[in-house]
Description:
Elements: E1 2-3, H1 4-10, E2 45-48, E3 54-59, E4 65-72, H2 86-93, H3 105-109, E5 116-121, E6 126-133, H4 137-149, H5 155-174, H6 179-190, H7 204-209, H8 212-222, E7 228-234, H9 238-249, E8 273-279, E9 286-293, H10 301-312, H11 318-326, E10 330-338, E11 344-352, H12 358-374, H13 379-396, H14 400-414, H15 419-429, H16 432-442, E12 448-455, E13 515-518, E14 524-529, E15 535-543, H17 556-563, H18 573-581, E16 586-591, E17 595-603, H19 607-619, H20 625-642, H21 646-659, H22 672-677, H23 680-690, E18 696-702, H24 706-717, E19 741-745, E20 752-759, H25 768-779, H26 785-792, E21 797-804, E22 812-819, H27 824-840, H28 845-862, H29 866-878, H30 885-894, H31 898-908, E23 915-920, H32 926-932, E24 937-940
Parallel strand pairs: 1-5, 3-7, 8-12, 14-18, 19-23, 19-24
Antiparallel strand pairs: 2-3, 4-6, 4-7, 5-6, 9-11, 9-12, 10-11, 13-14, 15-17, 15-18, 16-17, 20-22, 20-23, 21-22
Helix pairs in contact: 2-5, 4-9, 10-13, 10-15, 10-16, 12-16, 17-23, 19-24, 25-28, 25-31, 26-27, 27-31, 28-30
Amino acid sequence: xxxxxxxxxxxxxxxxxxxxxxxxxxxxxxxxxxxxxxxxxxxxxxxxxxxxxxxxxxxxxxxxxxxxxxxxxxxxxxxxxxxxxxxxxxxxxxxxxxxxxxxxxxxxxxxxxxxxxxxxxxxxxxxxxxxxxxxxxxxxxxxxxxxxxxxxxxxxxxxxxxxxxxxxxxxxxxxxxxxxxxxxxxxxxxxxxxxxxxxxxxxxxxxxxxxxxxxxxxxxxxxxxxxxxxxxxxxxxxxxxxxxxxxxxxxxxxxxxxxxxxxxxxxxxxxxxxxxxxxxxxxxxxxxxxxxxxxxxxxxxxxxxxxxxxxxxxxxxxxxxxxxxxxxxxxxxxxxxxxxxxxxxxxxxxxxxxxxxxxxxxxxxxxxxxxxxxxxxxxxxxxxxxxxxxxxxxxxxxxxxxxxxxxxxxxxxxxxxxxxxxxxxxxxxxxxxxxxxxxxxxxxxxxxxxxxxxxxxxxxxxxxxxxxxxxxxxxxxxxxxxxxxxxxxxxxxxxxxxxxxxxxxxxxxxxxxxxxxxxxxxxxxxxxxxxxxxxxxxxxxxxxxxxxxxxxxxxxxxxxxxxxxxxxxxxxxxxxxxxxxxxxxxxxxxxxxxxxxxxxxxxxxxxxxxxxxxxxxxxxxxxxxxxxxxxxxxxxxxxxxxxxxxxxxxxxxxxxxxxxxxxxxxxxxxxxxxxxxxxxxxxxxxxxxxxxxxxxxxxxxxxxxxxxxxxxxxxxxxxxxxxxxxxxxxxxxxxxxxxxxxxxxxxxxxxxxxxxxxxxxxxxxxxxxxxxxxxxxxxxxxxxxxxxxxxxxxxxxxxxxxxxxxxxxxxxxxxxxxxxxxxxxxxxxxxxxxxxxxxxxxxxxxxxxxxxxxxxxxxxxxxxxxxxxxxxxxxxxxxxxxxxxxxxxxxxxxxxxxxxxxxxxxxxxxxxxxxxxxxxxxxxxxxxxxxxxxxxxxxxxxxxxxxxxxxx
Length: 952
């Protein structure tokens, strides 16, 4: 259950093994671009029940799943006075008990049958969404209706979830670099009167102030049918859906009292404001400038959407080209359009490159905004932005849940289910003059609010240590008025409890059917036809990857792959970006541990010109010296950001500790020291060792036939005759390194990152599927044992999980979480005990079935989109797995029994040979950890040497 604002603006990771959050990642747009005929309007039916519930149905018989979403017109702006973060905390409690459902039943009804559920809290709404196999639709409707009508609030679950939300605040806001900038300071500087000023995550103090009576009153006030939208999308019978909706929702009473509404209007900002703050564990200075924009349904939003794309969508955008690429002033530079029911924001932000001043960054951002005000954008920029937006919109509608979200958001934010399609048409009509007009109207210097966000080490030694940023005292907030008829709901007795409906007959999913061919030069081709949307994902993979990095050149193959889109014999980096992005496409290059890849996504009507660029990038990179230096500097800055995140650093230390000097031990993107040592000749050699037709595979998935794909492949790759350079022998596998207990001391860290890791297996190991089921039982999903013990039972973390890195060579298994610093020793003990328990007894039949369903369901959803299918097939190519595994996956998972899980758990999950890594503020947990591990090693965070097996 995630907080939308944090996820949207920071991209914060749930688990330490995920990529670190950086300044805002672009969300999918609400509407798309150039022509109204390019994206089909979403076909839906609508009806309103007598109690006011609005019901939207979107039928798609091509999927075997169904999405159920309930959106309530209440969000963080409605948090009661003195209780910011309340709507978000309430969202968590909606997953507990109801009159007829036991606590955590939603996970039994979704995750345990191969689906998933989640929720988010936005300033204007709270939404609850599930995707399940279509035969479970009735069960989800029953459950959603029950929690709308009869939520049970009791002290134990209330206290536990409040602790979980505190850990979420620490994870997303206090432990993540720049977390406070985007989730706390940004809203606080953007509003002086409207309650949008209050951070949706709240504060530790406000969370403590809330009571159980507040929760019950909040539910009675806002969680009512006439304040909700139900959207069902996927494979269902419309008549049956109507019957079920009537059976479960029509009887919910509509209260006879009005719904409280925020009517405050934010006044225009006429005087600029400016703040400077200094925060610990901030790797690089950053600047953020916020401007006011009108509500989302305003006629100027389409032009602002196009301007947003021109400024920062893709590598051909103005901010990237000018601040990041040309001037090398910023490590990243972005804009985002944060529209709402009321006044929203247009934000420009930059994280500075190492050694560059925040003053210069702000000056450059303001110059870009002034340019938008003073001169017309070019026809090429206008076309590029519209095409990018239309492709992104098509991608956002590939799945049933994507279409459901589009309709629901349009209803809640704009009051019109067709708003997204109307904005689509309006974006197609935007002109250069429109863009200049809205820039002049809204993006004024006098209307700006600015934050300079600085590392604590840069604070002046004498005098003030920065400005205080807080919710303005002029913000108007209403107290929560408790209705007179609040019902205290109690769980039904076993005799009175209404039984959950049984699932219907399963809907059989159709699996992709890959067609293979081999070009005359030895290059392999894999094609999957998928004609429901005009999209194609193309990927060129070549054997080789981070595992081949020399011992003292960590990051060599990653840098090499990244540089492939930075110039060829006939195209510059800017030309590559421009040529693909003007088609509405995107191109990227990256490295995995055992392969490198270049990926292209584009509308199917633009595949021919885009394919020419893809082939040029794969065949003819030049690795110009100036590009190497530019990319090296940007990568070092990115690494510095990662090293300030306790969860991410814990994962890097764990890999080095367990894998030692083996192929997967070093950081795949390198370290500052290793990156500085890489030479151009080494980059050229790394490319030659990896990229040749005999080692390459072209994967094409989407709106294309095998014959057309082969013709394109022959035209673009058929003449490629590069000879494969000799491949160096793999590094010695050092996975049998002596287990260690390591504390990395990061003073003032907002949380402790905890990892327990041990040697694992290769993908080719006969125990792979049994290990996958064992790992799913241990730590995949909300119902996994680790998450049950650490989050659900004790509220010690926002989430806890585990993963198996099974690659061409044996990798490792890691269990991980983040928790408040003082609870790190307790969490380490819980992970160790849970891992031990996996091998001590067979997994019960019900739990075993649910964990298999998680794997099968995740696999099924991965194969619903062009990008997902391409990813699965690419993984098979890299891991030397036959494509027949697509059909064999589900039977092999289903064939794993409890005895196999117990056996493999004894082999792979026994923590006796595991290393324990804790990264955090050591003074808050070291003494407790030493009681269990007296020989713990302590390394200061700024002294960790990831280039060395010893870490010193």
